[in-house]
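ok trying this again, last paste got cut off
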Amino acid sequence: MSDPELIDVQEVAPAEVGEVDLYQRREKIYTRKIEGFYQRLRLFTGWPLLLGYFLLPWMSWDGRQAILFDLPARKFHILGLTFWPQDFPLLAFLLIISAFGLFAVTVFAGRIWCGYTCPQTVWTSIFMWLEQKTEGSRNQRIKIDKMPWSAQKITRKLAKHGSWLFVAFATGMTFVGYFYPIRSLAWELGTLSTGMWQAAWTLFFTLATYINAGWMREQVCKYMCPYARFQSVMFDQDTLIVSYDAGRGEQRGSRKRDADYKSQGLGDCISCELCVQVCPTGIDIRDGLQYECIGCALCIDACNSVMDKMQYPRGLISYTSEHQLQGGTTHWLRPRIIGYMVVLAIMVGVFSYTIASRIPVELTIIRDRNQLYLTTDNGDIENLYQLQLLNMDKSKHDYEIHIDGIEGAAIVGETVYTLEGGEVRTINLRVRTSPKSLDKPSTVLQFEAIAKDLPSLRAVSESRFMRPL
């Protein structure tokens, strides 16, 4: 007699095994053009940044390029300010403020940065617009890609890629123009007389723009951008996100405009798929929040246009919060937002004060280590120093060197030095004093450089004065 708990494995149907391709081939996304409130808003946010990017290097300020990061001279000109390598902590502080501001905006309104002002989004939108102008609407582009090669197809493709390369080249040249005088760069590129490095970097950024905005597009947002991966950590139930109201939209289904769809058990969603066709990352927002969503609101404008045609209320897809979708209300002022705002305000205040109170002069002292001291014929003690005086101001100043800390100590030789704006001067200095004024082998000696025409412009540094044991 067989054991009833034993089962013949042949009687059990094998489970279906699915395969997952980790290197799945990308399916090209054909986006549909759509107009609406949020797309007009994107124009007002994206175009100023775009124009600023292209125009700022061509502007002049006090006879020089308005923004120029002059790496060989180690000067960074930003409008009326000039920064030096010594100011790098300020740059780090500014980056921290920017990151903190991005986190605060994300907690409040999700990936609004990605959807409206991210360079990848802005340049991709330009390339998509050029694609629509050269190859036509979504259906026309699909048809062109499927048709065999012909004179018409080649002409349209050449027009598209030519326009892409033109924008990419302008972008690459402008980027290099922030680090090399752009007027000289434009002339040298136009006359094919540019240096190897300028040409190489211009070519690199041209290709990077062309590939990222023209070919990769949503792949950058989905797989290369780290922000897409950790954004959900900053979300809460009151964060504004682009969401589909499933309670109102389900069940989906097509219908006539004047049909009584409620009696058919249908919701407001007519399954037109327009929200999917306009999405630059190719997702269906009706499937819920996804990390691929960049918050561009194209699906909102598309859905609102359909709701208007069907004479349904707008807002089936909208900026909303999880609390509001669940029937509650969005809490705008919550402790997390208030905390971010307070800390951000403090950081901006400290940064602004640091910039406003920054003294554009620096003094560095290096003792001569080959000889600890010298003894003169009359018995006095001398120490040798090398001073590096940096005039970070735009104007010329006469700086006078003073010493303090040792009674009777004096500088041997010249004490006043004239420095042009932005000049660095290396000064060899001898300090002499009587051994009677030194009560120990090593004494702190303070050096001070003061602008004679502007006493508030001063720098202080310390070193040691050595005597025999």
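PB: full thing came through this time. The longest strand covers residues 454-466.
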